[in-house]
What we know:
Strand content: 15-25%
Order of helices and strands: EEEEEEEHEHEHEEEHEHEEEHEHEE
Number of helices: 7
Largest sheet: 8 strands, mixed
Amino acid sequence: MANQEGEEQVMSEVHLGCPPHVSGPYISHFAVSLPPTRHAGRLPKGAASRETLRLDNGCDYAQNGENCCSFEHNDSQSSAHIPQQEHLSLDKDGDLVLTRRENPNNRCLSFGLSIQHSITSSLLEVGLQVWKAALVLTDFVLHKSSTSSYFNDVVAVELGAGTGLVGIVLSRIAKKVFITDKGVHILNNCDANTHVNWSMLKCKDNTVCVRELDWMDSWPPNATTDSSPRSRSPNKRYLWSSEEIEEVESATVLLAADVIYSDELTDSFFSMVEKIMARGSHKTLYLALEKRYNFSLDELNVVANGYSHFRTYFKSEEYGEGDGLQPGFVGKQIDLAEIPQYIREYDRGKDVELWKITYRQGGLGVLPQ
């Protein structure tokens, strides 16, 4: 589609339920339900005393208070995704046997996220929208954090964060999350989303950092000596400090969603990721993407050329261990059938994939765990 000035516009399927023909930022409310677990990690303050956490920020930070969409939890559709309660049992006298909670935090935790976004955007500002792969990656983070302690107190970096949804959710249990993208409009929108959700997530002021990262530039980026971000001008407030660059090199988790849609950008992305993963601690990249099909004149068929180019960058894990002398990426696809859908009211479809990617230094014959 095109706007009034003739600039080509694109629209994410996630926003199809939003009212059409309305300009300006929108706010979508995403409802999340987590099953009871003993490994939920560090829960928001107050979770031990309340069965449900609610977020009611309204739309006061959008330009139009009526510009809201809702992705609410539907109880009638939850049984396929949320583990069922244990069956009732009776003792020998016919009395009901009650299971006692061992931990007051072992509850079904429900909460909401308010994400400001655009309904449509130009190709250069697609980060102003929420894309399907980001919802899938968010589901993975929620599942991993509710069933294990893997993400507890990690330092993580989200590359091409867009609206910041994935990094904001991870910040519930992470030690620190760097949310990165490029462009002042995208960064400002992402920064607004982090702040409006902090009240519910109970994050510390330094848990989430929004920073500019251009994949076309080299790593590490130029560091600023200004230690007071609030005093910077808007186009400089997202610069890195030297301390933050060191923190990224000690990070263990990288995240990226829907950044694979152009061969040129894919080349730049993996060049940047290789530089980050080759320095400091061992890192694991979790990357979600949606295959996008186009008609190819060369093959006279509809093909996913961008996806094919993406797959050339790594070897599958089951075939990569024998080539121990060569450095490079090793990938393993994660079965989405094993990841429950914690965010409601969106259709994953058949073209979204989730990959776990590691970088093997030259000379290593065994893949790091």
